[in-house]
Amino acid sequence: MRDAYHEELDAIGDSLVEMARLVGSAMGRATTALLDADLALAEGVIAADEKVNELHHDLENRAIDLLARQQPVATDLRIVVTSLRMSADLERCGDLARHVAKVARMRYPDTAVPSDLHSTVLEMGQLAQRLVAKAGLVIATKDVDKALEMEQDDDAIDTLHRELLSHLIDERWHHGIETAVDITLVGRYYERFADHAVSVAKRVVYLVTGEHVAEFVAATEAAEAAPVD
Amino acid sequence: MRDAYHEELDAIGDSLVEMARLVGSAMGRATTALLDADLALAEGVIAADEKVNELHHDLENRAIDLLARQQPVATDLRIVVTSLRMSADLERCGDLARHVAKVARMRYPDTAVPSDLHSTVLEMGQLAQRLVAKAGLVIATKDVDKALEMEQDDDAIDTLHRELLSHLIDERWHHGIETAVDITLVGRYYERFADHAVSVAKRVVYLVTGEHVAEFVAATEAAEAAPVD
User: Fold this and answer.
1) Do the beta carbons of residue B8 and residue B61 sit within 8 Å?
2) Confidence tier at B229 by pLDDT (50, 70, 90)
3) Which of A91, A102, A184, A195 would you mutate first to test chain B, the one with the most B CBs within 10 A?
4) What is the pLDDT of residues A67-121, one digit of tens each?
5) CA of B82: how far to CAs of A35, A77, B225, in Å?
6) Are B74 and A84 in contact (CB < 8 Å)?
7) Is A114 buried (19+), middle (13-18) or exposed (0-12) by CB count in 10 A?
8) Is the peptide bond before B109 cis (omega within 30 degrees of 0)?
9) CATH code, domain carrying B106
10) CB neighbourhood size of A172 (10 A)
11) Which three-class secondary structure state does DSSP give residue B179?
12) pLDDT (tens digit per residue) in B39-86
């Protein structure tokens, strides 16, 4: 009975990894659709988000069912509750990829991104995709060090986001207000996507160590700083 | 023992109502700070968000503790899991009120909102505040009809949001890009705040009826449309 239970728990983990893969792919394709003004690709991303939502609802139902039938305590309970939150984060990542694709669709056949911002937007899209791929890996491997690395990756996306906004308010900006509005929103979508990916990784740290990231880092630093005599 | 349990469950409900009250007040004050360029008020909103975060973490810990100790099933399990989600929604509302306050602080001593947009922003802020107040009432009273009304309120905020964006892309816009960026972000914050408030109310519908809103509405409509012979 306990074995079937742990199989179900593993299956929930597998679903989270699959969701991370799907939303990463969606954000990659949404970014391409946005930069290339590729309508078919944008439509594909928008339609495919349904699959992520289904996985999310299915995972929720399985997790609640598991709580009811198996009444886990301690670590097992923490895994199930945390999985629910990670699923909600990843579902939201899917929404944000869809939002980027919708901007691409709205501006088609034009591209929403002026050519001088292409590289920054591309970099944000790629970094967002890498972050959620890393989050998927962290779920699969429970690698706390990799999870903690993601804070820096998130700083990198914040830097790109500030760079993007600085273009907008530069007096040489000549792409008009509509484009500024699009870029403001798109920048926000990437930033939120990255936040959710980092949040997933932080939740794995909590799962593994039983401590929230700030506490864990503080405890580790205190241990390292302690006199060794 | 069961009585103490239901008291704890009630206390979780009370905390959610308190969180709704706090974030509603925060959004009201953030809107005033934004429109009046009131730095002290903005700082107050930013500092007060800590209290909401504390309530959220405290509620999470109590809910998980309850799951571990009491191992609820069926409706009781659904209440605890749903409370965790509502708490996450309300915590996010607090973040969004803080974001609005930060825009006010960033532009001080100027106001981020041009005078011709004051009334639209004020209306969005008030509606957002009313939505979360209604969500609090729905949590306290489990009033499904009121919860379902909130879909229309959410449509109203979407309409205001579109109106706000239409000002930005109007060719008569003369407030520059920086203001357009601020307004785009602020509009998005109100919209997301309202989404989370509606989400809270929808979760109450699920709690009371055991069905998600779409299913519940469809089932009700089917029952009403059934021939009465």
Assistant:
1) no
2) very low
3) A184
4) 999 888 888 898 999 999 999 999 999 999 999 999 999 999 999 999 999 999 9
5) 39, 16, 31
6) no
7) middle
8) yes
9) 1.20.58.220
10) 6
11) helix
12) 999 999 999 999 999 999 999 999 999 999 988 888 889 899 999 999
| Residue A79 falls in which region: left (phi positive, over 0), alpha (psi -120 to 50) or beta | alpha
- Average pLDDT on B100-110 reads 97
Task: Compare A203 and B1 and report the one with higher pLDDT.
Answer: A203
Mutate to test the interface with A, among B60, B181, B195, B213 (most CBs of A within 10 A): B181
Q: Say if residue B166 is exposed, middle or buried (CB neighbours under 10 Å; 0-12, 13-18, 19+).
A: exposed
Residues whose CB falls within 8 Å of the CB of residue A221, separated by 6 or more in sequence, listed in order? none
| CB-CB contact of A157 with A128 (8 Å) | yes
Residue B171: give the domain boundaries: 2-225
Closest CA to B162 of A106, A171, A156: A106
Number of domains in chain A: 1
> Residue A3 has what pLDDT?
80
Contact A136, A24 (CB under 8 A): yes
Instruction: With CB atoms and an 8 Å threshold, state whether A85 touches B81.
Output: no
Both tokens assigned to A115: 């050519």
Tell me the average pLDDT across A19-47.
98
Task: Please say whether the beta carbons of A19 and A52 come within 8 A.
Answer: yes
Q: What is the mean pLDDT of residues A176-187?
A: 94
Contact in structure between A163 and A120 (CB atoms under 8 Å): yes
The token duo for B218 is 């469809």
